[in-house]
Amino acid sequence: MSNAVATAPVEQCVVPANGLRRRLAPLWVGTFLQGFALWVPVEKLFMSEIGFDAATIGVMVAAYAALIPLAEVASGILADRWSRRGVLMLAGVALVLSVIVGAVSWNVPTYIVAALLFGLYFAMWSGTIEAVVYDVVLEETGDGEAYERQIGRVRFVESVALVLSALAGGWLASVLSTRATYFLTVPFVVFYLIALRRFCEPRLHQVSERTSLREHLTVTYRAITHRGRLVPIAAASIMAAMILQAMFEFGPLWLLTLEASAVFYGPFWALLVATLGVGGLLAGRLRLDRPVPVAIVVLVMLASCLTLTSSRDLAALTVAMVALTFLLVVIGIHVSQLMHDAVPSTIRTGVASGIGAVSWLVFTPFALVFGAVSKQFGVYVSGWMLTGAVALAGAALVWVRHRAPLR
Length: 407
Known about the structure:
Blueprint: H1 3-6, H2 20-35, H3 43-49, H4 54-81, H5 84-103, H6 108-141, H7 147-175, H8 178-196, H9 213-225, H10 230-250, H11 252-257, H12 262-282, H13 291-308, H14 314-342, H15 348-377, H16 379-403
C-alpha cells in the first residue's frame, strides 16, 4: 500500500466537550444494540432442529474459528491504517448478513455460511473495540490507567444486552419459534450501525508518519514475538480467550445431555453472559498482579472444571460454568490492559488482533476434537479437555504475574 493511500483523510468529527463519558456514550449505545441477540440463547436448540449434532457443531465452530485468524489480522491492520470506526461498522454489516442467513437456514451447510459471516463480524469487532476504548482513554486522560474501568463498562453494557436478550429470546422461542428470534434481531443491528455514526473515533493511530504495509506488518509481528514482557501476556490472553470461547460454544451441550427444558436455556444463557458485565466491573479489583489472588483464581477455575466432568445436577453445572467464565473474563481484561500498555497506538489494533488470531488458531483443533470426543464418549469426558486447558491458562497467568510489575 502506498503512503498516499495510507494517509488518505478520514472523516473528521467534533469531539464532545464534556469528557470521557460523553465521548464513549455512542459506543455504549452501539454495544448494547449489537449485543441484543435474541437468537443466541436458543442457537444450539435451533441447530439441533435443522440437523446438527455434537460432531457437526464442532465442525461448524472449527470452520469459523479457522476463518477468524485471517480476518482478525487483516481487520486489525485495516483499523490501524484506515478507520477503527469504519471497521466496527463493517462488523455490523457482517452481523446483519449472518443473522439473515441464519434465519433462512434449513440445513447444516447453509447455517455454516451464517456462522462464517458471524466469524467475520467477531474478528472485526473483538480487537478493534479494545483498541478504540484504550485510545479514547489515552486522548482524554493522557494515560491508560482508566482503561480497565472503561472497557469493563463496555463489557457490562454488552452483558446487560445479552442478559435481556437471553431472557427475551428464550421466552420468544417458546411462544413463537427459535427461527423467529433471528428475524427479530435484525432491527437491533441496523440501529447499531446508526448509533456508531455518532461516535467520534480517536486519532492517535494517525498522528505519526505512515510506513509501508510491509513495514507495518513487520513491526506488528516483532512487537508480539520479540518483546519479552509481551510473550507471557500473549500466552495468558490466548489461553483465556480459547477457553472462554469453548464455554460459550459448548457449554449448552451439558444442557442437551441432561435434556433440560427449552425454558431453562434463556436463564442459563443470561447467567453465562452476565459474567461479561460483572467480570468487566470487577476486573480491576481482583489484583491479579499479586500472588494470592492469582492462586485463588486458578484453584477456583480448576474446581469448576472438575464439576463439569462429574456433576449431573443442572444447578451445580450452571454455577461451575458461571464461575469459570467470570474468572476468564477478569483474566482477559487484566492481560488486555498489560498488552495495551506495552505497545504504541500505531500498531495497537494489529497486535491485539494478532494475539486474538492465534487464540482462534489454537481453538480450531480444540473445537474439532472436543466435538468428536463429545459425540463418541459424551460431554463429561470432553470436559477433561477443559480441565487441561485451564491448567495451562493458570500456568500462563502465574508467568504473567512474575514478569509484569506491580501496579
